[in-house]
Amino acid sequence: MTQERISLFVDHIGPFDAQKIGVLRGKANSGLELLNGHNIEVVQGFACEFDRLERFGFSPGAKIGSDFGDLDMALVQITRSKVETKLLVAQAWDATRVGGRIVVDGQKTDGIESIYKALRKLGIEPDTLVKSHGRIFWFERDETRPFADWLEPKLKMPDGFATAPGVFSAEKLDKGSLALIAALPPLAGHGADIGAGWGFLSRAALGHEKVTKLDLIEAEIAALDAARVNIIDERANFEWADVTKTSGRFYDFIIANPPFHTERTANTDLGVAFLTTAARNLKPKGQFYCVANRHLPYEVVLNELFRNVAEIGGTSAFKVFQAAQPRRL
Predict the structure, then answer these.
(1) Which of 32, 150, 226, 281 is positioned for an S-S bond with 198, CB 3.0–4.6 A?
(2) DSSP labels for 168-212?
(3) What whole-number distance in Å separates Cα of residue 50 and Cα of residue 43?
(4) Which residues span the domain enclosing 22?
(5) What's the pTM?
(6) Is 175 in the same domain as 293?
């Protein structure tokens, strides 16, 4: 676990003078509390984790701010995306003062070994510790710029859309989303795209002329920023939030391509939470449209949440549902 490796790192290097520490993609309950006594700035753009950090007593930022610099130490907690993690390492380097320390930590299953090897290919030989199916390594900042290429990731933007490193479907259009768009009937009124990502479904929904307003609710701020680029429409409202906490809305329709993975593990609970959120926020005559992989048993959940459920389209890999008359559980 990250907490065990950070504890090992702190014990290994002994007392250190770091007045200002920056943490990129910081996570709650990951050992950051072991750095107490220092001025810690945590950056986390995923709303769910952002909220957890606040509950743990941190005051995180959603983005790297103008004052995130001149760090004595920067800690990168890696993501599953190699492109995003390389960008984070480059940002950490630029934000750290010469002579400061950059620390990188992660699980092997999340790709820490490939990042470690990529640094060594650049001629950097970090100090390192291996524990709990992962690795933590660190190196000193100098006056060179070895990560200049990492600061400008070359993504293959699908069909001219803006995306961002690490977001869902960053380099190709998702086939499930395409299936959902193909099956949508005419939409009208005030709707929501929950888990809107970088706005692919939303832009299609706004192509329906009777849509009066569309709320794009997305937990990943980088994806939402990309959606702002992709959608220039006064009917669009962009909301950075944990989708599953949304309540008190009364939408005419909701569309969704619910996620079904947490980290690298299939987790239908997350998809179920999206379906529950939809049922909770529709008008009595509102309509919910979603897509799911064929192997996921969402029909059972949908029938518990709605009185009328029908499969209205799909492909051999995906199924598209229309659900109406939400039950007020």
Answers:
(1) 226
(2) TTSSS--HHHHHHHHH----EEEEEEET-TTSHHHHHHTTSTEEE
(3) 8
(4) 2-151
(5) 0.93
(6) yes
